[in-house]
Amino acid sequence: MTVGLLHGGMTGGPSLRTWTTRQDPMRTVALYRVMAGGRTQDRGEHEQRIRRAETQSGGRLDLLVDGSSVTFDFWDEPDGWWAATNHAGVGLILKAEEVRPTAVELRTITDLEPYLLGSRTQIEAFRGNR
Q1: For 108, phi and psi rounded to 5 degrees?
Q2: Which domain holds residue 110?
Q3: DSSP classification of residue 79
Q4: Domain count of the fold of the chain
Q5: In what order do the strands lie in the sheet with 90-97?
Q6: CA–CA separation, 94 vs 64, rounded Å?
Q7: Residue 98 — left, alpha, or beta (φ > 0 → left; ψ -120 to 50 → alpha)?
Q8: 8 Å CB contact between 50 and 31
Q9: What is the pTM of this model?
Q10: Tens digits of per-residue pLDDT, 80-119?
């Protein structure tokens, strides 16, 4: 199971997407990076892109997670950056656009309702319902 949140706008500007997953975060971030680059109709080519992304070594990035420094694998790409790691029994994946890594600090949340309400409000505004 993978759960994600978007912090920032849906239509451009600074944003940070965060995912927590019980799956392998390195495989998942490779899949997400490939999908962000555009899909291909050829399944073999798609799988080859994923395998290539899995073997691309990124850099290292230390971020604060609940006040402690945690090392992430890091990929700097033209449209932003990606980071992934295992921490406290779950995989963490980040995708940032127009956000410096030094501006990111992650905290555990236990109440998702404010985030869900914010997401619904953004979606309604995007659709022109507000």
Answers
A1: -70, 135
A2: 2-127
A3: T
A4: 1
A5: 2-8, 15-21, 90-97, 80-87, 68-77, 59-65, 105-106
A6: 13
A7: left
A8: yes
A9: 0.81
A10: 999 999 999 999 999 999 999 999 999 988 887 877 777 7
